[in-house]
Specification:
By secondary structure, this protein is of the alpha/beta class. It is 39% helix and 14% strand.
Length: 321
């Protein structure tokens, strides 16, 4: 059953009961029909107000910027040494997490022992159409291997065909399999969704007590866009009405975030986390921006002089920066 931490709007629709899958896993099912979910989602959508004002952004020259970054490596052809590099960079820069596929979680957890950097693992990646048992097994494997956060791909094909009860059952079951303090992020793949579908996904994520909604996998269509991040941030505010800000569901922007300008644009649009393989470059640019005293805005920093060339993951060492 969803916790009251998301507020009455989300939990008023979250009546659920526990059953068991054929594989013996605990499964949570909703008593609401697709039609009842549709009515609730329509009520949420009516009250969404998207702000055009900038949200607060960490000091680009300070450590708080690095703490917004999930340092990401999801390429299928990636080699073990690249994950050593990834973890070393995360340690030195103070990133929030490294974000990897399930088979690399244990290695990264070992590499990061003694640091404050967590391991995030993608689940159902990248199509999201794996069945619930597969996702539950991946989640269980990742948690046993040392993951503290799970980035779960929404079955957006079901969302497109209004199978809301099925989606909620999957999300609530995965929340049951991975209780707090594990952080759960739902990857929406906004490139495939209409604004109304994005709102629906946020509503069900909040009802299932997820901690974040995330824009994209980075593998299909466009990545993070300001318009999508602002809409998702507005949903989080609406669904978290009456709940302290620090306990509301939040937004992770992911896909195509490569520069400090990209990072600031997403943070000022309402993101609290950034998924990127360019974290080292972004933090480096942030420090240089602060040193030059140019400041940054979503419209980019005129007069900002980039120093050096963009590092590639295979060649950069954790002692470089």
């Amino acid at each position: 059953m969803a916790s009251s931490r998301k507020g009455s709007v989300a939990t008023s629709v979250a009546r659920s009961e526990a059953t068991f899958t054929d594989g013996g896993a605990v499964k949570s099912t909703t008593r609401y029909t697709d039609e009842e979910w549709a009515k609730f989602i329509a009520e949420v959508e009516k009250d969404i107000v998207v702000s055009s004002e900038p949200y607060s952004c960490p000091d680009v020259g300070g450590p708080a910027l690095a703490q917004t970054i999930d340092h990401t490596l999801l390429k299928l052809e990636a080699r073990a040494v690249q994950f050593d590099d990834l973890c070393a960079e995360a340690r030195v820069n103070g990133f929030a997490t490294v974000c990897v596929r399930p088979q690399w979680v244990h290695k990264c957890a070992v590499d990061l022992r003694g640091s404050n950097v967590k391991v995030a693992c993608v689940i159902g990646f990248h199509e999201g159409t794996y069945d619930l048992l597969h996702k539950a097994q991946e989640a269980k494997q990742a948690l046993r291997a040392g993951a503290s956060e799970l980035d779960i791909v929404l079955n957006y094909e079901e969302l497109q065909t209004h199978q809301y009860a099925s989606i909620y059952t999957e999300l609530a079951t995965l929340r049951l399999q991975a209780p707090h303090p594990t952080l759960l992020k739902l990857i929406l793949e906004t490139s495939q969704l209409t604004p109304s579908q994005t709102i629906a996904a946020c509503a069900m994520a909040a009802a299932a007590n997820f901690d974040y909604v995330k824009t994209s996998t980075g593998f299909r269509g466009h990545g993070a866009r300001e318009i999508d991040v602002r809409l998702m941030a507005a949903c989080c505010e609406r669904l978290g009405a009456g709940v302290p800000v620090e306990r509301r569901m939040r937004v992770k922007a992911s896909g195509g975030i490569r520069t400090i300008e990209d990072a600031v644009r997403m943070l000022e649009a309402g993101a609290s986390r950034l998924g990127t393989s360019g974290g080292v470059w972004i933090v480096k640019e942030g420090r240089e921006t602060a040193e030059q005293g140019t400041g940054l805005s979503p419209l980019a920093a005129e007069g900002f002089e980039r120093r050096g060339s963009r590092p590639g993951l295979e060649t950069r060492l954790f002692t470089d920066y």
